[in-house]
Design goal:
Helix content is 45%, strand content 12%. It is α/β, with parallel strands linked by helices. It has two domains: 155 residues, no CATH class; 204 residues, Leucine Aminopeptidase, subunit E, domain 1 (3-Layer(aba) Sandwich). A hairpin with a 4-residue loop joins strand 6 and strand 7. It is globular.
């Protein structure tokens, strides 16, 4: 099987084709995009690469939107809408001039074209490349080698709403994977048998207000250091997140969905917690009262959590072995519990199949959420 394109090579080619646009794709470097289109199944690699790349990009943008209809409306994921404008993927926008495409994309975020170019556009390129690679992974090795089709080309990637229900089934799940996942009804801040607690945050890494009944608010409240009178003297989690944002030049700017940032546990150390991981999965919509979550961001956050945990276990010599996840995306993110549970379990199975040194605790505030997690854990 040939090597698949890297994230960096895809980003580079996406930047190169932004200005000329899809109608002039034949004049642009596109080797990484061509390889990805063949791997996804939108191109045979035999004379249909231009159409295949375009269809793949449309599928990748729809993937960013959560798999549902892609519309230029506020209810649709802003990153997906801006990406569609950037590459002229909306109907009747394919041949629009580059300056007009950028202006329309900037309007999605309500910022100037210059600010969009310097910040949001870079995020779009990175996210779209990640979405392409996610489609490649979902296509599976059998598709890339032709093994499942007797060497025949896979039908074009369907642009449908299937991703709202969840990723494709994984087949029989080994017992050593399911046995490492337990589900319980419990406030996450009361968990005492996990090294890492995962919090759900927005893409600006702004934690919930300390008094709000959310996972983020509950962990912020429980981790805060208080004086003898019970007054907070150190808002540990928010303080450390603010330090991270300043150090990475992201204060007031969104991070890529699926980004995971580690902080110390603060007062949660008394529960045996060693780290709190903050998963940025929800993108503010309109005035920030609502959020959008692309289901694929849950999988990205799970992958990033274990990557970070392995790195911290090695570089910081912290004995990490158990990770506790809430039902990411099913609260203010608005995903149905069944959808969030299926994506979460799918991603966890991928990680535990590759690295069985971890144990996972899944917690839900309500029995309904726990039932959704148990059902997802018992379904191939």
């Amino acid at each position: 099987m040939p090597d698949l394109p890297t994230h960096q090579s895809l980003v580079r080619e996406l930047r190169d084709i932004r200005r000329p646009g899809l109608p002039r794709l034949r004049h642009c470097a596109r080797e990484a995009l061509r390889e990805a289109a063949v791997a996804v199944g939108t191109s045979t690699g035999e004379g249909d690469e231009l159409q295949g790349i375009e269809r793949m990009l449309a599928a990748a943008v729809q993937h960013l939107a959560g798999g549902g209809p892609l519309r230029d409306e506020p209810a649709c994921d802003p990153l997906a809408r801006a990406a569609a404008h950037t590459f002229g993927l909306f109907p009747d926008r394919r041949g629009t001039a580059a300056a007009d495409r950028r202006k329309a994309a900037a309007a999605v975020y309500g910022v100037s074209t210059e600010r969009f170019r310097r910040s949001h556009e870079q995020e779009i390129m990175a996210e779209l490349a990640s979405s392409v690679l996610m489609l490649v992974r979902e296509a599976g090795p059998a598709v890339r080698t032709g093994g499942a089709h007797g060497g025949q080309h896979r039908p074009p990637f369907p642009l449908s709403g299937r991703m709202l229900a969840g990723p494709p089934p994984t087949g029989p799940v080994p017992a050593h994977v399911t046995n490492r996942i337990t589900v319980r009804v419990c406030p996450i801040e009361l968990v005492r048998d996990a090294d890492i607690l995962v919090s759900s945050e927005n893409t600006y890494l702004e934690m919930s207000k300390i008094f709000r009944p959310t996972v983020s608010g509950a962990l912020r409240r429980a981790a805060a250091v208080r004086n003898g009178s019970g007054e907070i003297v150190d808002d540990v989690l928010q303080r450390e997140l603010s330090t991270w944002l300043r150090g990475h030049g992201r204060t007031g700017l969104p991070v890529r969905p699926g980004t995971v940032v580690a902080t110390s546990p603060g007062a949660l150390a008394s529960h045996g917690v060693r780290r709190v991981y903050h998963a940025a999965i929800s993108s503010p919509v309109e005035d920030g009262d609502r959020y959008h979550i692309a289901p694929a961001s849950l999988a990205e956050a799970v992958r990033a959590t274990f990557t970070l945990a392995r790195a911290e276990r090695e570089t910081l010599s912290i004995p990490l072995s158990t990770v506790c996840f809430p039902l990411l995306g099913a609260g203010h993110g608005g995903l149905p519990a069944e959808t969030a549970a299926r994506w979460l379990l799918w991603a966890l199975r991928q990680e535990l199949s590759e690295d069985s040194t971890w144990r996972v605790r899944l917690v839900a505030q309500q029995q309904g959420g726990a039932d959704a997690l148990k059902a997802a854990n018992s379904t191939p």
